Amino acid sequence: MRYLILVEATGAADADADAFGRFAAAMDAYERLLARAGVLLEACQLRPSALGWRVGFGGDRRHRVEGPFAGAAAITGGFAIVQVGRPEELDEWVRRFPVDPADPIVAGIEVRRLLEPGEDRAWPPA
Amino acid sequence: MSTEDHARLATDRAIDAVWRIESARIIAALVRIVRDIDLAEELAQDALVAALEHWPAEGVPDNPGAWLMRTARNRTLDRLRREKSLARKLEQIGLDLEALEAHVVPDFVDAIDDARADAVGDDLLRLIFTACHPVLSTDARIALTLKLLGGLTTEEIARAFLVAEPTVAQRIVRAKRTLADARVPYEVPQGDALAARLASVLEVIYLVFNEGYTATRGEDWMRPALCNEAMRLGRVLCELAPGEPEVLGLTALMELQASRAGARTDAQGRPVLLMDQDRRRWDALLIRRGLGALERAATALQALGRSAGSYLLQARIAGCHARAPSGADTDWPAIAALYDELAGVAPSPVVELNRAVAVAMARGPEAGLAIVDALRDEPALKDYHWLPSVRGDLLAKTGRKPEAIAEFERAAALAKNLRERELLAQRARDLAGPPD
Question: What value of ipTM does the predicted structure carry?
């Protein structure tokens, strides 16, 4: 089974160059950790939200909001796609994200299972 | 189920997961200390049992991998203090307890700096090369590798290979004894020995992969899980030996083959031939990875000034298929050329037969038939239904209908699988035309 590990940066890591550098370094280290264990399939890091924008799909109007997303508590910073034998292994991999608790650069990690090619799209599965 | 039962189950699963992730590294480090796979595994198992005793009551520790390693290390040191003879044996090979205590970094599992990772990696490599030592039978190498490197239980290995659990347990016990008797050194082979020893490792990984790949729908999930474990081991090896073209080749081969897993059977579970597969169901992520590994292999090959080995050539062939937008767009001349090269590196009747198919697609059925005809008396292919099946196909394409029908009938009689037999018999009937 394949999972997406979505790493969310804090507003500080998104806005501050030094903090962003530390976040990127932590992501690099995390990728190496996953790769060495043979579970990493794909990884990607993102630029700070200053280079992005958001389009809201409310009703019949679409609102474009330019980055940076100041004030947001969590901003997507990168992801890894891993293949594991059991979902419980994800708890371990999430725990191992190398971050100093005293340095708030990571807001959280979201884990999602991939919808695999050929898999039943119905939910919940029959 | 009560709340306590749920909590207990969750803890057991957590322990199981930590074990799968950590056991290889723990055992690899312990073997370096005690120079005995059996004892190292026993000490690691002791740590696991301790976890099963403590964690349900005390909760899973913050760093479960480090907890296991620390416990295993402490038990090892206790054992060495208690058993003077063992300590003496180790002193003879230049180890002493003081050095030992310094040697085992307690929190190494969380270490992310490359220096420490290298030390862990070296241990893992030693363990892989030992588990796959040519002194062992193929079955023993497979069982030992999955147990020590994959963290699989004897029961899981037995289920995956459709054999009885005691059989697997026996294989593992005997394998460890054989290694001890042969005094196999715990090291990564160097120089000329490396190529042969590496071939033995790659063979084991590919056999594990193929065992999983040939599993059919509805079988125990442990069987297809072998594919993923083989690919994981391949990737681990790629990280440990990034400059080895055959390691990259094997990993690319497995990923490219696995990319087609979702397309190779139809809704009824019947096999779909490569040319007829719905390519939208191929796994783009695995293809991208496989093709990426092929590029890295080419660079590594150039740096070494070597020519491609058999896994890399097979992976390149798989890569040609993966790149083709449709069956009709397949670059057959490139595939035929790769088969020519493969026949030079790893000649075998099966490679010849595949080469014949590629040559027929590239240069016409007559050219392919010439290769197939040379294989007709090949004893290794005597009962191989693909030989008459391929020959029948090529004969049909050159208009030699009666001979083609005879070959398809022969192929149907040889086919072991009911569905294949039916398919081949149908082709014979189709050629014969409707009865008058």
Answer: 0.93
| Average pLDDT, integer, range A47-51 | 97
Asked if residue B355 has pLDDT above 90, the reply is yes
A30, A80 Cβ separation under 8 angstroms: yes
DSSP B181-233: HTT--SS---THHHHHHHHHHHHHHHHHHHHHHTPPTTS-THHHHHHHHHHHH
Give pLDDT tens digits for A1-37.
899 999 999 999 999 999 999 999 999 999 999 999 9
Counting runs of H as helices and runs of E as strands, what totals does chain B give?
20, 0
Looking at the complex, report in whole angstroms how far the Cα of residue A10 sits from the nearest Cα belonging to chain B: 22
Give the integer Cα–Cα distance in Å for B358 and B363: 8
- pLDDT (average), residues A77-97: 94
Distance of CA B14 to the CA centre of its chain: 26
Give the chain A residue nearest B118 (alpha carbons). A36
Phi then psi for A48, rounded to 5 degrees? -55, 160
Interface check B112 vs A, CB under 8 A: yes
User: How does B324-334 read in b/e, with b if 16+ C-beta sit within 10 Å?
Assistant: beeeeebebeb
Q: Say whether B112 and A32 touch across the interface (CB within 8 A).
A: yes
Residue pointed to by tokens 């240069």: B363
User: Where is A77: in which H helix or E strand?
Assistant: strand A75-83
Residues of chain B in contact with residue A37, where contact means CB-CB under 8 angstroms, are: 21, 232, 236
Q: What angle do CA B233, B192, B300 make, to 5 degrees?
A: 55
Enumerate residues 6+ apart whose C-beta is below 8 A from B286.
A41, B255, B256, B258, B259
Identify the bridge partners of residue A4 per DSSP, sorted by sequence position.
A81, A112
Q: Name, in order, each residue with C-beta under 8 angstroms of A28's C-beta and a sequence gap of 6 or more.
A: none
- What is the per-residue pLDDT for B210? 94
Task: Say if CB B10 and CB B51 are below 8 A apart.
Answer: no
What is the distance between the alpha carbons of residues A8 and B76, in angstroms, rounded to a whole number? 41
Distance CA A64, CA B92 (A): 73
Distance in angstroms (rounded) separating the CA atoms of residues B330 and B361 = 9
Alpha-carbon distance B18 to A91, whole Å?
9
Chain B, 275 to 304: residues with Cβ < 8 Å from chain A are 281-283, 285-286, 288-289
Residue with tokens 């037995």: B158
Cis peptide before A117 (omega within 30 of 0): no
Is the model's pLDDT at B97 over the cut of 90?
no
Prediction pTM value: 0.92
Q: Look at B109-113, B155-159, B253-257, B404-408 and tell me which has the smallest mean pLDDT.
A: B109-113
